[in-house]
Amino acid sequence: xxxxxxxxxxxxxxxxxxxxxxxxxxxxxxxxxxxxxxxxxxxxxxxxxxxxxxxxxxxxxxxxxxxxxxxxxxxxxxxxxxxxxxxxxxxxxxxxxxxxxxxxxxxxxxxxxxxxxxxxxxxxxxxxxxxxxxxxxxxxxxxxxxxxxxxxxxxxxxxxxxxxxxxxxxxxxxxxxxxxxxxxxxxxxxxxxxxxxxxxxxxxxxxxxxxxxxxxxxxxxxxxxxxxxxxxxxxxxxxxxxxxxxxxxxxxxxxxxxxxxxxxxxxxxxxxxxxxxxxxxxxxxxxxxxxxxxxxxxxxxxxxxxxxxxxxxxxxxxxxxxxxxxxxxxxxxxxxxxxxxxxxxxxxxxxxxxxxxxxxxxxxxxxxxxxxxxxxxxxxxxxxxxxxxxx
Length: 391
Ligand code: PLP
What we know:
The chain has helices at about 20-30, 50-60, 70-85, 100-115, 130-135, 155-160, 185-195, 255-270, 275-285, 285-310, 335-345, 375-385; strands at about 35, 95-100, 120-125, 140-145, 165-170, 200-205, 230-235, 250, 325, 350, 350-355, 365-370. The chain is of the alpha/beta class.
């Protein structure tokens, strides 16, 4: 047998990022029988009527490929909802792409809009997918810090991140992992820079309906001059508690949508057809549905935050989304990973080490993230365990 020198058979790109730490912590939670407050998915049922809509769609034999960029009734429902919710008129035929979750929406958008070597500005700490997304699309990420404790950015630092190589900025609003809701003033500052430098804003608004204490969600596309340079990435996952359905969408001007649709088609062809049909039903729910969603999450937040503080965590109370980034300095561990492993193995609660949300792991060494999208029983079980932790 002729032997040849061994090739790695893996790409340089794939070598530049690790497996998801969030999903790994879910596996750790299962292995140690711990309460999983790591990965952001509800442990309660999805609304019965939405589930019924999916079952009925399968019964009606909505079981073949949908139109690659999304079933017409879902795109129409999206246009109607976007009109009443955001006050934006969008053309369902030319400005919407239905994707396999916001996850595919984000990577398809980056691949459709950014060329290798171009820069993408990303606020840090960031939802961990954005860094691999940037690498896979060939973009060079440029990070801008959101500073603790209130997670604001320094306008000068943001301005300094923009250059002639900047193609896009990625925003996550309301924010995972911080629970921050960007104010209108902050968004205007970002918008002004985008317009000055002819930059695209890709905004992940998957938590748009999870807001607390009357916080207002402003969509970047609502700001004057931004509609034509914004891609809104969104999903059914969090709003309708169906993270496993994998139905998301991108809203963008027609020429950008055309590029996203091409990338999307060759990546996945399309999201599950019967679940798109159920999506059309979900998107047509009345406003009250969204009021209840926020109120229920606010009650969970209010149950969990005082317990975290009592246990010794430093927190800044989230204004949106269902996460809290905590400061763990008081516990005296060497770093976040050591603390998170102690928590999952010895205390019985899974969280996500803060370092997985930073480009330089040491910047998150004193932080861990908890999610609170769980039943009261689950949160109370976690509270009970955390109360044994000594700060
Ligand atoms: N974007 C953000 C900010 C998230 O927090 C998540 C999931 O936690 C996703 C995207 C993934 O969304 P999807 O389930 O629609 O792919």
